[in-house]
Design brief:
The chain has 300 residues and is of the alpha/beta class. The protein has two domains: 115 residues, Rossmann fold; 116 residues, Rossmann fold (3-Layer(aba) Sandwich). It is 40% helix and 15% strand. The strands form three sheets. A six-stranded parallel β-sheet has the order 1-11-8-7-5-6. It has a three-stranded parallel β-sheet with strand order 3-2-4, with helices on both faces. The chain has a two-stranded antiparallel ribbon with strand order 9-10. Strand 5, helix 7 and strand 6 form a beta-alpha-beta unit. Helix 2 crosses helix 10 and helix 6 packs across helix 7. 46% of the residues are buried. The model has no long low-confidence stretch (mean pLDDT 94). The chain binds NADP nicotinamide-adenine-dinucleotide phosphate. GO terms for molecular function: methenyltetrahydrofolate cyclohydrolase activity; methylenetetrahydrofolate dehydrogenase (NADP+) activity.
C-alpha cells in the first residue's frame, strides 16, 4: 500500500480563506476587527519565529495583532498585569502567551490570568476542563487542527482504535480527549510505555507527537492505518523531519501527513479560527461558538 498524503497546507489554505470571509463579515456587520494579543517573554529564537508566523497569518486574514515583548528577567507580576489589562480590553478577542516561559514563571498562574473567554490557545484550566467533559470553548490549536484534517480527509473516527504517542498537556492529552469525545477507543503512550509497537500496531488512527525522529518504523504500523505525524525535529544536517520513518510508514499506511507541510500549517490556522470565533461571540453576547465534540465541519 502507498499512502495518500494528507496535505495540511491545502486544508489550512481553505480554512484561512474562510477566516478572511468571517473577518470581513465582522467588519461589515459590526464594525469589529478581530484582535489578538501575543505576549513573548525572553528572546528564544524558535519562539520568535513562531510569533512572527502567527502575526503574519493574522495580517493575511484580517486579524489585528498586538505584540508585547518582555525581557527574559521580567517579573511575573508585570506580565500578569498586562494580561489582565488585555483581558479587560474590548478590542482584544484573543490572548496568547508564547511558550515556553522562563523558569522563574509559574505557568498555571500566568495562563490563569487570561480571561477564559479570550484563551485562544485553550490552555486555561477552564477550557481544559471543558474538553474533559466533552464540550469546550477553545480547543487547543494543534489537536484541533488534527481533528479537522481527519474530518476533511473523510476518516471515520467513532468506533476506531486510536493510539496517541505522546502525552503532553498541549498536544497528546487534549488529542486523546478529542478522539474520545468523538467515540474512538483511545490508548495513550509516553516515554515509559513498554513495547510501544504492541500498541501502535493496533491503531486504525495513529497520532504521533513525541519529538523523536524515526520513533515509528514501518513494522509498527497496521496496514491501512491513518498516520498523523505531529513531531517536528531538526536533524544535524538541517533537515526537518517528523517522528515517523516517512518512507517506510507510507508503504503501510492508507493516509499520512508529511513533515513539513502536514500538521504545522494547521496549528497556526486554528489559532486564527479561535480568535475569529471569539470576536464573533463578542458580537453575539458570548454564546458558545463551539460546543460539544471538536471537529465541527468548518470546511464545506
Ligand atoms: P513534549 O512536551 O516534549 O512531550 C513529548 C511527549 O512524548 C511526552 O509525553 C513524552 O513522554 C512522550 N515521549 C517522548 N519520547 C517518547 C518515546 N520514545 N516513546 C513514547 N513517547 C515518548 O512535546 P510536545 O510539546 O507535546 O510536542 C511533541 C512534538 O510535536 C515535538 O516534536 C514538537 O515540536 C511537535 N509539535 C508540533 C506542532 C505542530 O504544529 N506541528 C505543535 C506542537 C508540537 P513522557 O510524558 O513520559 O515524558
Amino acid at each position: 500500500m502507498t499512502a495518500t498524503i494528507i496535505d495540511g497546507k491545502s486544508v489550512a489554505a481553505k480554512v484561512r480563506w474562510q477566516c478572511r470571509e468571517r473577518a470581513d463579515e465582522l467588519q461589515a456587520r459590526h464594525g469589529v476587527v478581530p484582535g489578538l494579543a501575543v505576549l513573548m517573554v525572553g528572546d528564544d529564537p524558535a519562539s520568535a519565529v513562531y510569533v512572527r508566523k502567527k502575526i503574519q497569518a493574522c495580517a493575511d486574514v484580517g486579524i489585528q495583532s498586538h505584540k508585547f515583548l518582555f525581557s527574559r528577567d521580567e517579573k511575573q507580576s508585570v506580565v500578569i498585569d498586562k494580561i489582565r489589562e488585555l483581558s479587560a480590553d474590548p478590542k482584544i478577542h484573543g490572548i496568547l502567551v508564547q511558550l515556553p516561559l522562563p523558569k522563574h514563571f509559574d505557568l498555571q498562574e500566568v495562563l490563569g490570568a487570561i480571561d477564559q473567554e479570550k484563551d485562544v490557545d485553550g490552555f486555561h484550566l477552564y477550557n481544559v476542563g471543558g474538553l474533559v467533559v466533552g464540550g469546550t470553548v477553545f480547543p487547543p490549536c494543534t489537536p484541533y487542527g488534527v481533528m479537522l484534517m481527519l474530518d476533511n480527509s473523510g476518516v471515520e473516527i467513532a468506533g476506531r482504535n486510536a493510539v496517541v504517542v505522546g502525552a503532553s498537556n498541549i498536544v497528546g492529552k487534549p488529542m486523546a480527549l478529542m478522539l474520545m469525545n468523538r467515540e474512538a477507543t483511545v490508548s495513550v503512550c509516553h516515554a515509559k510505555t513498554r513495547d510501544l509497537a504492541q500498541f501502535t500496531i493496533l491503531a486504525d488512527i495513529l497520532i504521533v507527537a513525541a519529538g523523536c525522529p524515526n520513533l515509528i518504523t514501518g513494522p509498527m504500523v497496521k496496514s491501512g492505518a491513518v498516520v498523523i505525524d505531529v513531531g517536528i525535529n531538526r536533524l544535524p544536517n538541517g533537515q526537518l523531519v517528523g517522528d515517523c520513518d516517512f518512507e517506510a510508514v507510507s508503504r503501510r499506511a492508507s493516509k499520512i501527513t508529511p513533515v513539513p507541510g502536514g500538521v504545522g500549517p494547521m496549528t497556526v490556522t486554528m489559532l486564527l479560527v479561535n480568535t475569529i470565533s471569539s470576536a464573533e461571540r463578542s458580537c453575539a453576547d458570548r454564546s458558545p461558538a463551539i460546543a460539544g465534540a471538536v471537529g465541527a465541519a468548518l470546511i464545506d
